[in-house]
Amino acid sequence: MVSTTCIVLGIPVQEGAGRLGCDMGPSAFRTAGLVTELRNLGYAVEDRGNIAPAPQREVRHPNGAIKALPETVAWTEAISEAAYQASGDGMPIFIGGDHSLSAGSMTGLARRAAKEGHEFFVLWLDSHPDFHTLETTTSGNLHGVPMAYATGLRGFEGFFPAVANPLKPENVCMIGIRSVDPAERSALATAGVTVHDMRAIDENGVAPLLDAFLKRVAAADGILHVSLDVDFLDPGIAPGVGTTVPGGATFREAHLIMEMLHDSGLVRSIDLVELNPFLDERGRTALLMVDLVSSLMGRRVLDRPTQSYRHTPKAH
Questions:
Q1: Among 196, 301, 290, which Cα is nearest to 259's?
Q2: pTM value?
Q3: Residue 216's closest CA among 93, 88, 112, 123?
Q4: Residues with active-site annotation
Q5: Low-confidence ranges of the chain (pLDDT < 70)
Q6: Residue 143 falls inside a structural domain
Q7: Domain presence at residue 303
Q8: Cα–Cα distance between 258 and 280 in angstroms, integer?
Q9: What are the UniProt keywords, alphabetically (predicted)?
Q10: Bond prior to 97 in cis (omega within 30° of 0)
Q11: Are 172 and 86 in contact (CB under 8 A)?
C-alpha cells in the first residue's frame, strides 16, 4: 500500500438508507476486530472515532419523495472535510454507515488528489450504481445518489455542497451491478462509467475485468479509492444489509478482488458501507467484511510472485 498509517473514521450515518440500523455499523466493524487485524498486518492505526455531521440548515427540494435531505447534506459536508484531512495524513478507512457517506468521502478524496496532482479513480463494488439525482430518485433514499453527485451530474446545485473537483465518470469502474433503475440506466448509457454487471463476471471472470481497470489507474499514475458495499456480496454469505439483492459476488470472487487490489499497490482509501448489524447473524457479515479488508491490506494464504502495476523506470 502507498501509505502505512491507516486512519479509521467511523461514519454512523443511517438517514440515507430508509431504515434504521446502519448507525451501528462502525461499532460492529470495531467489535469484529478491524483495528486489531490491521495492526497484526503491521500497519500503524489511528482510530479517530466517529465523526459528527455539520450543523443542519433548512434545505427543501421539489421532489417530495426525498427523505432526510438536511441531515444528508450535513453529513456530506462533515465527511468531505474529514476525508480531505485524513487523506493527507495516511490511508483513510471509512466505516459506515449507509452509502450516502460516499458523497462526502469521494468529494473530499478527489479534492486531495487534485491538490497532489493525481488523477482520482474509484472502484465501486455494489449491486447498485447509486446514480440517481435529486430529481430522479423515486424512493427518496439518498444512499442512491452519491456517485451521481460526486461525478458532477446536474441537479445538486443549491442543495448539496458544491463539488470543487468532480470525479471523471471515465475514472469509475463498477463491478457487481445487478439492480439498476430506469433513470440510472439512461444516465449511465451516456456517462462514460465502466459498468460490469454480474453477467459480465459470469462470462469473463472477475480477474480480467479488474486487471484492465487497474492497468488504466497505473498508467495514469492515479489514486484509487475502493467503495465496498455489503450488498456487493451474495446475501447468502452477507445477510447483514437492508438492500439484499440475490446473485452477488461469492466468497472466492470477493477475496480475489481484494488480493488483486493489494498486489496493485494502488489503493489509497476504502469505504465499508451498508452494514446493518440489526439484520446480521451473530456478526457474520461484519466478520466477513473485516476478512476482506485484511486480504486487501496484504494477508495471504501463500506467498507468491505478484504482478506490479506500478511503472518502473527503463534502464538507459
A1: 301
A2: 0.94
A3: 123
A4: 99, 126, 128, 130, 143, 229, 231, 274
A5: 1-3, 301-316
A6: yes
A7: no
A8: 22
A9: Arginine metabolism, Hydrolase, Manganese, Metal-binding
A10: yes
A11: no
